[in-house]
Specification:
The chain is mainly α. Helices cover 76% and strands 0% of the residues. It has a single domain, classed as Amino acid/polyamine transporter I (Up-down Bundle), CATH 1.20.1740. Helix 6 packs antiparallel against helix 14.
C-alpha cells in the first residue's frame, strides 16, 4: 500500500505558512529603531523578497537535481561533503526550526496576553506546541489537511486586514515617497542589520525542499511551490508593512513586538482591534504547525545516514517520524523557557544565512560536476540570480557579525558543536562498520 503523498497545494501551503508568521507581525518595531523613512522600510521588504525569490529559484534547480527530503542536509552532503551536510542538518535541528517555533510560540503568547493579561504567555505558547506535536506525530494526511486549512484562513484574514487598512484615514501623515533621507538609510549599516529581521520573516521560502521526498512529482512541483509561494508572500509582506506604518505613528512602533495588535487597534478601534489581535495570535498557529511538519524530515534523513542518530528516523505505522517531531518540540519548549524574542531572531538570522549562502553557491558546483546530467529545471537568469542572492547575503552577514557580534558567535558556536558531534558520530560509524 503506497503512503500518502504531499501534493502541490499542500507544498505551497507549507511554504506560505512557514513564511507568514512571527517575523512580519513582530519585526517592524525593531526596524524603525534605525530607519524612519516609509520608503526605506518598504524597500527593506522588497529587497528581502527579491533575495528570497533568487534563493527559491536557485533551490528549485538544486532540489530538482536531488529530489529527496532533507533540504540543505541533502544538498550540501552531495555538493560539498557529508560533514557540511551534517552541519546544515544540525543547524536546522537546533536553530532552523526549533528556534523559530519558539519565537512564534513566544509571539503568540505575547499577542494573546495583550487581550488576556492574566494568562502566562509561555504557558500559552508551550500548550500550542504540544498540541500540534501530537497532531503531526500521528498522521501525515491529518497534519496536511490542518496545514492547508490554517494557511487558507491566514491568507484570507491578512488580505482582509490589508483591505480594511486601505480605507482607514489616520490622523497623521507618513510619507512613502523616496527622499535623500530614505536613500541614506538604505545604504546604512542600520538597513543591513534590519535585514536580519526581514530575512527571518522571509525564512521558510525553502520549506518545501525539506519534504521533497514525500511530494508528488517533486522535480516539477518543488520549483513551482518555492517560486509561487515566495512571490505571493513578498506581495503580502510589502502591503502589510505599508498598512502598519500608515496606521501607527513611528514613535509608537519603536521597540514593540505586537505591531499587528497596535495597527488593529487604530484601524478597527479598541474592542474590535483586540479581537483582531487575538486572530493574529491564532494565525501564528499555522506557522508553528508548518515548522513542526517540515523540520523533523531533516532529522529523519540524518538518522538514516548516521547510526548514532538512527533513533531520529524512527517512524510509526503511518510513516511519520514521530521521534524526530517530539525531539524538535522538546528543544523548542526549552528555548521558549530560556530565550528572549530579539536574541532568538538575531541568532537564527545569522546562522541560517550561512547555510543558505553555501547552498545557493552550490548551484555553480552542481553545474560544474554534473554537466552530463539532464536537470529538468534550470535557474532563470543564471548566473545573475544566484550572484545577486550571494552578494546581498554576504552584505547582511558582514553587518550582522559587526553589529551583533555576541549572537553571531553563539551561531558559530552552534556550528562548531555540530562539527564535534559529526566527528564523534563518524568515528562510531567507522567502528561499527
Amino acid at each position: 500500500m503506497s503512503q500518502p503523498k504531499i501534493g502541490f497545494n499542500t507544498a505551497i501551503a507549507i511554504v506560505i505558512a512557514n513564511m507568514i508568521g512571527t517575523g512580519v507581525f513582530t519585526s517592524l518595531g525593531f526596524q524603525v529603531m534605525d530607519i524612519q523613512s516609509g520608503f526605506a522600510i518598504l524597500m527593506l521588504w522588497v529587497v528581502g523578497g527579491i533575495l528570497s525569490l533568487c534563493g527559491a529559484l536557485t533551490y528549485g534547480e538544486i532540489g530538482s537535481a536531488f529530489p529527496q527530503s532533507g533540504g540543505e542536509y541533502n544538498y550540501l552532503s552531495r555538493l560539498y561533503h557529508p560533514s557540511v551536510g551534517f552541519l546544515s542538518g544540525w543547524v536546522s535541528v537546533t536553530v532552523g526550526f526549533a528556534a523559530p517555533i519558539a519565537a512564534a510560540a513566544t509571539a503568540l503568547g505575547l499577542y494573546t496576553c495583550k487581550i488576556y493579561p492574566n494568562l502566562d504567555p509561555k504557558v500559552i505558547g508551550i500548550s500550542v506546541v504540544l498540541a500540534l506535536t501530537v497532531v503531526h506525530s500521528i498522521n501525515l494526511k491529518l497534519g496536511s489537511a490542518i496545514q492547508r486549512a490554517f494557511t487558507l484562513v491566514k491568507v484570507v484574514i491578512i488580505l482582509m486586514f490589508i483591505g480594511f487598512g486601505l480605507f482607514y484615514v489616520p490622523p497623521f501623515y507618513t510619507s512613502f515617497a523616496p527622499s535623500t533621507q530614505s536613500f541614506n538609510e538604505i545604504i546604512s549599516a542600520g538597513f543591513a542589520v534590519s535585514l536580519i529581521f526581514v530575512t527571518y520573516a522571509y525564512s521558510g521560502w525553502n520549506a518545501a525542499a525539506y519534504i521533497a521526498g514525500e511530494m508528488k512529482d517533486p522535480q516539477k512541483n518543488l520549483p513551482k511551490a518555492l517560486f509561487f509561494g515566495t512571490l505571493l508572500v513578498m506581495a503580502i509582506y510589502t502591503a502589510l508593512n505599508f498598512i502598519f506604518m500608515y496606521s501607527v505613528p513611528v514613535d509608537e512602533l519603536k521597540g514593540q513586538v505586537e505591531v499587528g495588535y497596535l495597527s488593529a487597534n487604530k484601524i478597527f478601534g479598541m474592542q474590535l482591534g483586540q479581537f483582531m489581535g487575538l486572530v493574529i495570535a491564532l494565525l501564528l498557529v499555522s506557522t508553528i504547525s508548518a515548522m513542526i511538519l517540515a523540520g523533523p524530515r531533516v532529522m529523519q534523513a540524518m538518522g538514516k545516514d548516521m547510526k548514532p542518530l538512527q533513533f531520529l528516523s524512527t517512524t510509526n505505522k503511518n510513516s511519520v517520524p514521530y521521534v524526530a517531531i517530539i525531539f524538535q518540540s522538546v528543544i523548542s519548549i526549552a528555548l521558549v523557557l530560556t530565550s528572549s524574542f530579539q536574541s532568538l531572531i538575531t541568532y537564527v538570522g545569522f546562522t541560517l544565512n550561512l547555510f543558505t549562502f553555501l547552498t545557493v553557491f552550490g548551484v555553480f558546483i552542481l553545474r560544474a560536476k554534473n554537466k552530463s546530467i539532464d536537470i529538468p529545471y534550470k535557474t532563470p537568469l543564471y548566473p545573475v540570480t544566484p550572484i545577486l542572492f550571494l552578494s546581498i547575503n554576504a552584505w547582511i552577514l558582514f553587518f550582522i557579525f559587526k553589529n551583533k557580534t555576541e549572537e553571531s558567535l553563539y551561531g558559530l558556536g552552534t556550528v562548531l558543536l555540530g562539527f564535534i558531534i559529526f566527528q564523534i558520530s563518524a568515528k562510531i560509524n567507522k567502528q561499527k562498520n
